[in-house]
Design brief:
This protein is of the alpha/beta class. Helices cover 20% and strands 36% of the residues. The protein is globular, with a radius of gyration of 16 Å. Bound molecules: copper (II) ion.
Length: 143
């Protein structure tokens, strides 16, 4: 009985989290992005659930760079990418090759669970218009 009740609460919490993310994506500021952003048609990919017990890999978004710019992870090991926006405007962390886009509002933090892909270097950037050109680029290095 208790287990079932607890499961229900967890589901409700997850549902609220999901709604919050969807709400974030529907912010008016995010509409009308450049046409080359194919994310805009479906609102981008929401953050993935965190992986219990996996290491946390922090990265900060600032105006206009990533700290650190090189993120190193080990292959065949899931991790939780903890993205914190320390800037004054919305930013995101987009890894095209992995289909990842994490949008974070100023002062907010989003943690997304990721499965480290095959070894290699995966470029990421902020897809907010002009930010990539301003230097918001980095690399996820899987070794
Ligand atoms: Cu940005």
């Amino acid at each position: 009985m208790h287990g079932m009740a607890l499961g229900g609460v967890v589901l409700i919490v997850l549902a609220f989290l999901a709604m919050g993310m969807l709400g974030g994506w529907n912010m008016p500021g995010w509409r009308g992005g450049p046409p080359h952003m194919d994310w805009s048609s479906r609102g981008g990919s929401p953050a993935q659930p965190t992986v219990a017990g996996a290491p946390v890999v922090p990265v900060s978004l600032v105006d206009f760079t990533f700290r650190p710019r090189d993120i190193r992870v080990r292959t065949e090991q899931p991790f939780n990418l903890q993205v914190t926006n320390q800037g004054g405007i919305p930013h995101d962390l987009t890894i095209p090759a992995l289909g990842v886009q994490v949008v974070v509002r100023p002062g907010q933090q989003v943690i997304t669970g990721l499965q480290a892909p095959v070894p290699g270097t995966y470029d990421f950037y902020c897809s907010v218009p002009g930010h990539r050109e301003a230097g918001m680029v980095g690399r996820l290095i899987v070794e």
